[in-house]
Amino acid sequence: MIRYLFHPIDNSPLIVFRIALGFIFLAESAGAILTGWVHETFIEPEFTFTFIGFEWLRVFNGPLMYGWYALMAVLAIGVILGWRYKFCMTALALLWTGCYLMQKSHYNNHYYLMMLLSYMMIFVPAHRYRAVDVKRNPALMRLTCPRWCVLMFVALIGVVYFYAATAKMQPDWLEGRPLSLWFSRKTHYFLVGPLLAQPWIPIVVAYAGMCFDLLVVPLLLWRKTRWLAVGASVFFHLFNSAVFHIGTFPYMMIGSLVLFFPPEQVRKHFFPNKPSQDQVQVQAQPPVQKWVLLALGCFFLVQITLPVRHHFFEGYVQWTEEGHRLSWRMMLRAKQGNCVFTIQDPSTGDSWQIRPNKQLPPHQARRLSTHPDMIWQYVQVLKAQYAAEGKPDVKIFARVRVSLNGHPYQPLIDPKVDLAKVPWEHFRHHGWISLREKQ
């Protein structure tokens, strides 16, 4: 296994992927500014819904975020060019992690995937060819890399697709329920709109999506079916991009296809003038090899176990949301909710109500009404505001009703629990989150 993983292979796939990933980060960073996403997410709201425990990141909210995203765009250009690659990739990974932890109102799984990929790219020699760093220091140039430098990306992509497939193996998805709701809002689309209006389309797309996620990586790895899988991948991701408008994720996955081809074939198509051998091939020493294997083992142990942690929480993950993030449960549910908070001041006996859709921007209010962790966070914000007004002992109750995948509305939160008094528990089910009744 050690000989196989550390055997030198042509580094062309790694170089191409570095350039492709750099363009993805550039598109995400510059696009967030140009489309107004940064303004909507970090400038307009009074506060952001951070990951719990990272509320201190709110100090960066405001016009400073324009500079933050502009700096990420510059760093992405550095990655593309291979200019001071290690610095640019490390800084980009840290800044992207900050953005990821800063807000949940626009959560996407591919933000998490980009974060993982950015950290992985720090530790591989993706700057040893076709890079400004090599122009500045020719001694850096290498035409090979250890096989593990490519295989770990293939393995992570396999984990993503596998868990995306298994998450779809549940009744609502196989009945096409969420897809029916989404497609019903897209029947006006040019060309594909009439097709999306057909009642059988959600079922076909549901099963096709599950089978694609389950089979695409094995088909890409087998030489005889590789080009069939490439064609299916391009069609699948372009369809998702056109219909669901899910940003750069489809193009990142298309760009990752280069990792599944033999390195010599990648070199032939992308770098036809590149020599096929290094004059000097540097092999890692056995102690280094063992540390690399240990690091890879720990990393993939985390990636394999995180997506199944929801089984250790009571309740249905798509309802409670406990264990949903970081687990590749992509586009599985359509949720609608309404939320009202009742505030009681024990010192005066007064009570009043707050409706988040009257207080928050629309994108925050929509997400809050279906996510218990964001409901709890908003209660803490209200609690702090009232404490600053001289009302430190207010009680805050939430009445929330949610519809999952078109099913009838049900209570999501126990309306008798004072959420201002309950702590957040990271590793167990919260009793104030109502369990969904069977339907």
Could you give the distance between the termini?
49 Å
**Percentage beta strand:** 5-15%
Number of helices: 20
Total domains, how many?
Answer: 2
Low-confidence stretches: none
The SSE order reads HEHHHHHHEHHHHHHHHHHEEHHHEE
Strand order in space, largest sheet:
4-3-5-6
Helical fraction equals 40-55%
- Can you count the beta strands? 6
Mean pLDDT comes to: 94
Largest sheet: 4 strands, antiparallel
Structural class: alpha+beta
**Radius of gyration using CA atoms only:** 24 Å
Shape: globular
Describe the structure.
It contains 20 helices and 6 strands. It is α+β, with helices and mostly antiparallel strands and 439 residues long. It folds into 2 domains: 2-309, no CATH class; 334-411.
Brief write-up:
The chain has 439 residues and is of the alpha+beta class. The chain has 20 helices and six strands. The protein folds into two domains: 308 residues, no CATH class; 78 residues.
What are the key terms here?
439 residues, alpha+beta, 2 domains, 4-stranded antiparallel beta sheet, two-stranded antiparallel sheet, 20 helices, 53% helix, globular
Question: How are the SSEs ordered, and which strands pair?
Answer:
Layout: H1 2-6, E1 8-10, H2 12-34, H3 37-43, H4 64-81, H5 85-102, H6 109-122, H7 132-136, E2 144-146, H8 148-167, H9 171-174, H10 177-184, H11 193-196, H12 201-221, H13 226-244, H14 249-255, H15 263-270, H16 286-305, H17 317-320, E3 335-345, E4 350-354, H18 356-359, H19 362-368, H20 372-388, E5 395-404, E6 410-411
Antiparallel strand pairs: 1-2, 3-4, 3-5, 5-6
